[in-house]
Structure formats: C-alpha cells, structure tokens
Specification:
The structure holds 2 protein chains of 2 kinds.
Chain A (H helix, E strand, L loop, with lengths): L1 H15 L7 E9 L5 E8 L2 H11 L2 H11 L4 E10 L4 E9 L3 E2 L5 E4 L7 E5 L4 E8 L4 E8 L4 E8 L5 E7 L8 H23 L1
Parallel strand pairs in A: 1-9
Antiparallel strand pairs in A: 1-2, 2-4, 3-4, 5-6, 6-11, 7-8, 8-9, 10-11
Chain B lengths: L1 H28 L5 E7 L2 E2 L4 H4 L12 E7 L5 E10 L3 E12 L4 E6 L14 E10 L9 E9 L4 E3 L11 H4 L15 H13 L12 H17 L3 E2 L16 E3 L3 H7 L1 E2 L1 H14 L3 E7 L2 E8 L2 E4 L7 H4 L5 H22 L3 E4 H6 L11 H11 L9 H9 L9 E3 L18 E4 L8 E6 L5 E8 L4 H14 L3 E7 L2 E7 L4 E11 L2 E10 L7 H9 L3
Parallel strand pairs in B: 2-8, 10-12
Antiparallel strand pairs in B: 1-3, 3-6, 4-5, 4-7, 7-8, 9-11, 13-14, 13-16, 14-15, 17-18, 18-19, 19-20, 20-24, 21-22, 22-23, 23-24
Helix pairs in contact in B: 4-7, 4-11, 5-12, 6-7, 6-11, 9-12
The chains are: A alpha+beta, B alpha+beta.
Chain lengths: 204, 546
C-alpha cells in the first residue's frame, strides 16, 4: 500500500514537473498623458536558455537604449530608467516618447498601429485601457501592448483607416485653470465691485 | 461724514479697477509663449533608395528625411497648425500635416517621407541641398510664421552609404553595414537593359529562346552557370580592392561608389558587390530567389531554393579575384566552400549576413525604375552577341557533385514524394532525405527528414497518449532517459522549444495533432546558432503541417 502511494505521489510530482516553459514575453505598457506623450515601460521575461545566452546584452544598458531607439526610429525618446530582476529572468526599461499621439484635422488624438492584423481589445471600461497581443511562434515570443489613455479622454473609439490599419482615437478636453486665473479674478473683481457699488448707490 | 461717504465708494471703484487690470493682464499673458520646434534630420539621401525614403512603413519608418517635435508653449490652443516643406529643385511646397488642435503644453511628433520624382536616379554627382519648413496656424500674422531650414547631402545614384549611424555610436560590425538591406534597391530585374542581358544569357548559354527556369536545384545551378560563363567568356574585369567595410572602426569605406547592374554589363567590369547585384538582378529576372552573402570585406552572390543555398565566387572571372581565371566548376566550388565557412564562422559571430532579395522587395525595399536605353543594348550587342560559346558539361558535372545521390540503404529514400505519409503530415522539400526509425532508443521517433546540408531536420514522433499534455510528458521522459533535456511551450496545437544535448542545443518549432493510436508531433529542428538564418525554410515547412 505504501509503495503504491509513493508511486502515485511520484507520478503526480512528475506530472507537475514537466518542463513546460513560457515563451519569451515582451510587454509594452504605454501610459498616455494629456499632452500626447507616452511613458512606456518595456519589460522582457526570458526562458532560462535565452537568459543565459542574452546576459551580456541585458547587462549593457547603453545597448538596450540603442535597441529601443531603433524600434521607435520616428520618435523622440528620453528619460530612460533600467531595472533588472535576475530571479524572474526579466528586466524593465521605462522611457518617455514625446509627441507619441498624432492629431487629426479635427483635433482628435490618434494612436496608430503598424500592423493591419493588430487585434485591439478594450480591457477596462473605467480606465480606458486597450490591449493588443501578438504571438510569434517561430521566434517563441509573445508581445503585449497595453495602452492606458488619460482618465478624462472622451469619445474613445477603435477604427480603421482607408488602408485597413487600425487606430485608437480619442478627444482630450483641457481646462487650464492657471491660464484663466487673471480672467476669472478680473471677472470676480468686477462683479464684486459692481454689486458693492450698486448697493451703496441704492442705499443713498 | 463726507469722508465716510467718499470712502465707501472707494472700495468698489478699486475692485472694478483691479478687475479691468486683471483683464488686460490676461490678454497679454495668453499671447506670450511660442511654438517650440525641434528637428532631427538624416544627414544624406541616396537617390537609388528614393522609394524607401517615401514609405513610412518600411523598416518602421527608419528612413525619414527629418522628424520634428512641436511643443505648444503658448497659453492658448492653436488651431489648424499647418506644417509645410520644400526641397528646392526636387519637391515643391508640400503640406506635411495639418494639426486641427494643438492644446497648451501638447507635444506632437511628425516625420517626413518625401516623394522624390523617379528622375532623381539620373543624379550622377553629390550636392548639398536644403529643406525649408514653414509652420503656421489660424490667426497668425504673416511675419509670425515660423520658418526653419537645414541642409543635407544628396548623394549620387551610384553612392551607397553602408551606414547612417554616427561614427561615434558604432557598436558592432552590424552597425557598420546597418543600411545593408538597402542594397536590394540596386537589384534591378525590371531594368529593360537587364531584361535584354538576361534574355541573351538564356538564349546563348542556357539554350532555348525561352529557356525558362523550372525552379529545380539543377536549374538554379544552371542559372549561376549561365551568368558566370557570360561574364567569364566576355573577360569581364573584377575591379579589385574596394569592398565592404572590413571591420568595426573601418570608417574609410563607409560610402562606396557602386555601379548599377546595367553599368557593370556595359562597362564590362565590377567589384564583388557590383557583381553580386548583377547576379541578383538576372536571377530575379529568371524567377529565382537571389541572395547576397556579406562578410567583412567581401560579398558574393547565390540563390536559395527549397531551403538550400548555392553560392558562387563571382570574382573568379579575372586574375584579381582568385589569382587566376577560374572555370565555372572552380568558381562554384569556391563559392560553396565560402558558404560552409559563412555558416560555421561568420554567421555565428554576427559578422556574416544574408540578403534575401525577394523578401526585401516584398517589404517595400524596392528597386529604382530605370528607363530603356538603346545605347546600352547596342553596347551589349557589341560586347556579347555571337561571341559566347556554350559548353554542356560544366554545370552538369558541378551539379552532380552537390546534388544528393540516391542511397542504397533500405531505410533511406531520396524524397521525390511531395508529402509525408499519414493523415497529419507536411510537405517534404525536394532532395531532402527521409530516414525511418533512425534511432532505436527513441521508440516514438517514426522518421527524420534531413536537409541536404544536414542543418535542418524534421522529426516525426508518434506518441501513444490520450492528450497533448500526456504526449509531451511521454516525450519528455523518453528524452530524459536518453540524457537529453526537452523544454517546450504549448499554444493550442502549436509548440516551440529547445532540446539540450551534452555539448549543444537545438531550437525547434512544430505542431501536434491527433492520429490513430495517439498523437503525432512534427517538429522542425535547427542548431540554435543557425535558427534565425533558416527561418524562411522553417516557416515554409511549418505552414505546410496539417
């Protein structure tokens, strides 16, 4: 009985110890700000084999920055910050893409996708978050792009242009209180002064 | 009392006055600020690559003329911001974009991909050109329009810059030839002069008015023979020393003057890279898939068919290349030896590159358009016609050396069959060898189909199991019992992974499907060092698994 039990436990352990490895995972988290910039956190998780092979590349921050600039050649990138997690076999690189969002003739902000097959899904109604996932079985990579739009983004929609390339469109309304400080203060002052004057004149 | 009454009027009057002053300050403040404009430009334009410069989708928009960042530093929203540019002599005033609304503190980045006229390929000298940019918006005065300009080098059609990366930022040899994909713009199969030259090769050397190439490996070698013999018999001169950059830091040869294929033909001379471009143009014209192998200081042409590469040392045509004038057999042998060194040394070390011309054309790196030129055709007639002699032995002998011979072993067959047997199977590439039950220690391994160069193998496992997970467990244990570690990931029916042997590892990709008695796994496996180089072959076989 004891032998059967041990064999059973052994088989269970063997089952769960199957060497099933995740694919190389790349995630791009884009946090879009109201001024059209995107703060991107790029993270990559490796399989054990790839981690060993890529150590020299991963340890060279300059190389990673150069590599990222070549992934986004049309943009202006700055503020790079790098962190590595040896235990998880992963690293994070955050940076800012200035002017990431395009603007159309009607003033809407647009995020364009370079692939016609990009499948864009809304993952959160409250937070205006969208996700697109691409699997490349041949290169064993899983690429996830997550876009978090500003909280006050309005009229958010996913559409396709005339060439079939998808894009996310949204409208940003801005209220710059500080730019209207003098105007509001002037109006307030005029109203108070006028009301005060009116009551004094009436009293007289 | 009078003072008190006067005083009671003072406060509201002061408040009204302050309100008016605040209004005035507001209208002064909102007109302060500026539209900040930051420009980053490429230092040169190569006329031969004008189609790439006009396409924002090629290589992620790497080849822009300039990119610009606009930042609204005004205290008001700007409406209908229009950015225009011109390049005097090349491009008239063109609207780059119209931004409907540029809010306070908003950033927008733009990139310019100018559409040059095809006549730009007639440029035979270098010059310095300027780009003028104008930015305006609604409500702006004429004298407030922002004007910017910068200059760039317009190279000649024959100038090829191997890299656009600044010298101080070059990291590796790959950076030195970062623009290598653009060499595909110099492969001109649709050039009427090359078409004429190709038809001459086909009729004079390959025999037959329309000696169409049937896409077999023999015909691929035959095509190489035709081009080589044409250049050899006409005593085409190998121009010698100038080639690709030899090593990182070799900045003296980063811009090279390259003859177009038609110029190589009519001038009867060429460098290694020029000969490679000529071969590629003719091979492409013939309907084959040309490739160019790049190594430090040298380039040589080849052709890819069914996952097999063939290469030739094109410079064997005159004394400068090999030290003697080589026969086709000798040049082909040297080419295939070069190929072995390429895969064993240059490719793993990151200093060898393969340019797949058809693939590069398919992603938008398109060749320039050239007009017909009767003068060139007459020149070709003068040099070539009725002067070449066909020898029907040369390529046949060479081909038999490199093709697969049939094996007498019972378990091996030269694959004339198109599809592997079974309900779940794949297309077997021509000339690949199938071994049935090749290893008694792997009872699930039904067959291995191997490429002629022995680098790629398709492994067929028939596993008795009730589910995919069970099947992979079974396989994992079988591998472990033989001292081999199997790692994999499953995505539905698709799998990918690594196999670790004692001294090496291989990377594989495949599919698993239900068959009678269990599951069949079809895995395409390549040594890890060569995986990326064979991705085209792997993809073809993978897509045929069903």
């Amino acid at each position: 009985m004891k032998k059967i039990l041990l064999l059973f436990i052994g088989l269970i352990c063997l089952y769960f110890s199957v060497q099933s490895q995740d694919m190389i995972k790349e995630t791009y988290n884009y946090k879009i700000s109201g001024n059209g910039d995107a703060t991107v956190i790029f993270s990559r998780t490796y399989t054990a084999a790839e981690w060993q092979q890529s150590l020299s590349f991963i340890s060279n921050e300059g190389l990673l920055i150069t590599g990222l600039k070549r992934i986004f050649p049309k943009y202006f990138l700055e503020d790079f910050k790098f962190t590595k997690n040896e235990e998880q076999r992963s690293f994070n690189m955050s940076f800012v893409i200035r002017g990431f969002c395009e603007t159309d003739k009607k003033g809407n902000m647009i995020i364009k996708f370079m692939s016609k097959d990009a499948d864009i899904k809304k993952i959160s109604e409250e937070d205006n978050k969208f996700m697109s996932v691409e699997t490349n079985i041949l290169y064993n990579t899983l690429e996830t792009h997550i876009f978090e739009l500003p909280k006050n983004a309005k009229n958010v929609s996913v559409e396709k242009d005339s060439f079939g390339y998808p894009y996310i469109k949204f409208d940003m309304s801005h209220l710059y209180i500080k730019n209207y400080f003098w105007l509001f203060s002037g109006v307030l002052s005029l109203i108070i002064g006028s009301v005060f004057l009116f009551f004094i004149m009436k009293k007289k | 009392m009078r003072d008190k009454r006067w005083f009671s009027f003072l406060i509201p009057i002061v408040l009204v006055f302050i309100g008016i002053v605040f209004f005035i300050i507001h209208f002064i403040e909102i007109n302060k600020g500026q539209l900040v404009c930051e420009i980053d430009s490429n230092q040169f334009v190569m006329p031969a690559t004008y189609k790439v410069h006009s396409n924002n989708k090629v290589l992620d928009g790497k080849y822009y003329l300039f990119k610009m960042l606009l930042h609204n530093n005004y205290r008001k929203t700007l409406r209908n911001v229009v950015v225009k540019y011109n390049i005097p002599g090349y491009i008239e005033w063109t609207e780059l974009c119209c931004i409907g609304k540029l809010s306070i503190d908003q950033n927008v980045s733009l990139a310019c991909f100018p559409k040059f006229d095809p006549s730009i390929v007639e440029k035979t000298t270098q010059s310095v050109e300027s780009v003028n940019i104008q930015i305006s918006w609604d409500g702006i005065n004429e004298n407030e329009v922002i004007e910017k300009s910068f200059t760039f080098d317009m190279l000649s059609v024959n100038d090829f810059a191997y890299t656009s990366i600044d010298k101080d930022e070059l990291i590796s040899y790959s950076d030195m030839i970062d623009n290598r994909e653009l060499l595909a713009c110099y492969v001109t199969p649709d050039d009427p002069v090359i078409q004429y030259y190709t038809s001459l090769i086909q009729s004079e050397l390959l025999k037959g008015d329309q000696a169409a190439v049937s896409k077999s490996e023999e015909d691929a070698v035959r095509a190489l023979f035709g081009i080589y013999e044409m250049t050899r018999q006409m005593k085409m001169v190998y121009s010698g020393a100038k080639g690709l950059p030899k090593e990182a830091g070799d900045v003296t040869s980063l811009i090279q003057n390259i003859r177009l294929p038609r110029e190589v033909v009519t001038g009867n001379t060429g460098l290694c890279i020029e000969l490679s471009l000529l071969y590629s143009s003719v091979l492409s014209r013939m309907g084959l898939n040309p490739v160019i192998f790049l190594v430090p200081g040298h380039a040589y042409p080849g052709v890819e068919l069914n996952g097999i590469y063939y290469a030739i040392e094109a410079t064997g045509i005159s004394g400068e290349g090999l030290g003697y004038v080589a026969s086709f057999e000798e040049a082909f042998t040297v080419g295939m030896q070069n190929l072995e060194v390429f895969f064993n040394e240059y490719l793993p070390s990151g200093t060898g590159f393969i340019l797949d011309i058809n693939y590069l054309h398919s992603i938008g790196i398109l060749p320039m358009e050239l007009d017909d030129d009767q003068f060139c055709k007459n020149k070709i007639d003068d040099i070539y016609k009725n002067k070449v002699k066909f020898s029907n032995n040369c390529y046949a002998n060479v081909y038999s050396t490199y093709s697969n011979t049939s094996d007498q072993s019972q378990n091996r067959e030269s694959s004339n069959a198109k599809r592997f047997s079974g309900t779940f199977s794949f297309d077997i590439p021509t000339q690949w060898i199938t071994n049935y039950s090749p290893n008694p220690y792997y009872t699930t391994l039904t067959a291995v189909v191997t490429s002629p160069d022995q680098i790629v193998s398709i492994n067929v496992f028939d596993i008795p199991a009730n589910s995919i997970a069970d099947a992979m467990n079974y396989l994992y244990i079988e591998f472990a019992n033989n001292g081999t570690v199997l790692q994999y990931s499953i995505q539905g029916q698709n799998l990918s992974g690594y196999t670790f042997y004692q001294n090496s590892s291989s990377q594989w990709v495949g599919k698993i499907g239900k068959v009678k008695g269990g599951y069949r796994l079809i895995a395409i496996s390549v040594n890890t060092n060569y995986y990326n180089s064979y991705i085209g072959v792997i993809e073809k076989i993978y897509n045929s698994i069903r």
